[in-house]
Design brief:
This protein has about 80 residues and is α+β, with helices and mostly antiparallel strands. About 25% of the residues lie in helices and about 25% in strands. It has 2 helices and 5 strands, in the order αβββαββ. A 3-stranded antiparallel β-sheet has the order 1-5-4, covered by helices on one side. It has a two-stranded antiparallel sheet with strand order 2-3. The longest helix is centred in the C-terminal third of the chain and has 12 residues. It is flat.
Length: about 80
């Protein structure tokens, strides 16, 4: 059985800077044809990936933007271009 704790107050919600403020700020000024580069974090399923780049791409998609991406020549970074 799990231990039950009684009488513990619920902590307040975190208020302040959103986790991905840097990404949101960049997306707010990114124009068609502009690009952003992120370092690769490793290889997954035989493909290089970037956690921060994937977050960037997903947040852009949620804002209705379309991006394309390319791996640089030495495979150390992924660049994302806004195309729509």
């Amino acid at each position: 059985m799990l231990k039950i704790d009684k009488g513990l107050p619920i902590p307040r919600k975190r208020v302040g800077v959103p986790r991905n403020k840097e990404v949101l700020d960049t997306l707010s000024i990114l124009e068609i044809g502009d690009s952003v580069e992120f370092p690769t974090d490793g290889i997954r399923h035989g493909t290089r990936y970037s956690r921060k780049g994937n977050t960037f791409k997903e947040m852009a998609r949620k804002q209705g933007m379309k991006l394309t991406q390319r791996l640089n020549e030495d495979k150390s970074a992924i660049r994302f271009w806004r195309i729509k």
